Each structure stands twice: as C-alpha cells, then as structure tokens.
C-alpha cells in the first residue's frame, strides 16, 4: 500500500523473460519425449500419474503444466496492456509500466521467433528425410520459402512432367 507500483518491478525482471524462447524452442521435443516415455515405460507412466494425483498439481496433467511457461509471456503482455489502459497517464507508475511493456513485447517477439525457427528446422528435417538423406539441408541458416507441385515443360516436345519443388 505504500508504493502501489508494478512497472518498476517488471522492468527489472522482464529481461529474464527472453530465456523463455529457449524453453519454447524445445517445447515440442519435450512433449514428444514425455509421450514416448509414457508409452514405452510403465514405470515412468505410473510415476507421472502418481505425481499428477497430488493436490498441489490441481488435477492437471504434466503436459498442461509444461504448457504454462509457453503461455506466460503473452499473458504478461496482455495483462500489462490492460493495466496501462486502466492506469491514469499521470500515474507515477506509467513510464515504468510502459517501459516494462516494451521489454516484455520484445521477449514475446523473441519467443515467437524461436517457435518459427524451430518449426522451420523441423520442416527442413522432414524434407531431408524425404529426399533419402542424401543432401544435408538441415542448417539454421537455411529457410524453406515455398514447396509444391509444378509442371516441367520438356524443351523438345513440350510435354509436361510433374515435379515437386522445394524452394
């Protein structure tokens, strides 16, 4: 009640939110690992089920708890925008809250970028496997721009041949 502000606190903590990007990048892989080990190992499955039954888990699955950090940054961003809409512009917290929103928005953007990069690498890996793993195209600097069916016209007799193109 003595200092009713949150902007200054968030401003100090917001730079640490960028590490969520790393979590988000590995999220799909982590979910797949949990699924795989739940199917493969009855012991793992039972341990996870026992933990999920604990009152502290609130009847939520491990996967649900794993999803929460992915949703955290967008939630902070949304709450801070709402806070700023309702905060009088002459408030002592206005500038700090505004700066916090800027930093959190950057972290959200960083997180979204990490998701897109991971999806791109995953798609490149799928293409690499489709091509028989002959040409190594899986590289963080490579980007899939477009893919799809095309018709190649033969120079001699103008017959059309179907091809699948990866750009």
Automatic annotation (TrEMBL):
Q: Which SUPFAM superfamilies match?
A: DBL homology domain (DH-domain), PH domain-like
Q: Which Pfam families match?
A: RhoGEF
Provide the species name: Pitta sordida
A single Gene Ontology molecular function, please?
guanyl-nucleotide exchange factor activity
Gene Ontology BP terms: cytoskeleton organization; filopodium assembly
Gene Ontology cellular-component terms for this entry are: cytoplasm
Q: What is this protein called?
A: FGD4 protein
Alphabetical list of InterPro entries matching this protein: DBL_dom_sf (IPR035899), DH_dom (IPR000219), FYVE_RhoGEF_PH (IPR051092), PH-like_dom_sf (IPR011993)
């Amino acid at each position: 009640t003595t200092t009713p502000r949150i902007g200054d606190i968030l401003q100090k903590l917001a730079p640490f939110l960028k590490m969520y990007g790393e979590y988000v990048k590995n999220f799909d892989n982590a979910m797949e690992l949990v699924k795989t080990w739940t199917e493969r190992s009855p012991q793992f499955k039972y341990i996870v089920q026992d933990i999920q039954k604990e009152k502290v888990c609130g009847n939520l699955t491990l996967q649900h708890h794993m999803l929460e950090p992915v949703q955290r940054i967008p939630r902070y961003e949304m709450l801070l925008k709402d806070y700023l809409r309702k905060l009088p512009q002459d408030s002592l917290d206005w500038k700090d809250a505004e700066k916090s929103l800027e930093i959190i928005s950057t972290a959200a953007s960083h997180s979204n970028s990490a998701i897109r990069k991971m999806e791109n690498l995953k798609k490149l890996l799928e293409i690499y496997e489709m091509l028989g793993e002959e040409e190594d195209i899986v590289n963080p600097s490579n980007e899939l721009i477009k893919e799809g069916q095309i018709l190649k016209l033969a120079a001699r007799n103008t017959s059309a041949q179907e091809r699948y193109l990866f750009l």
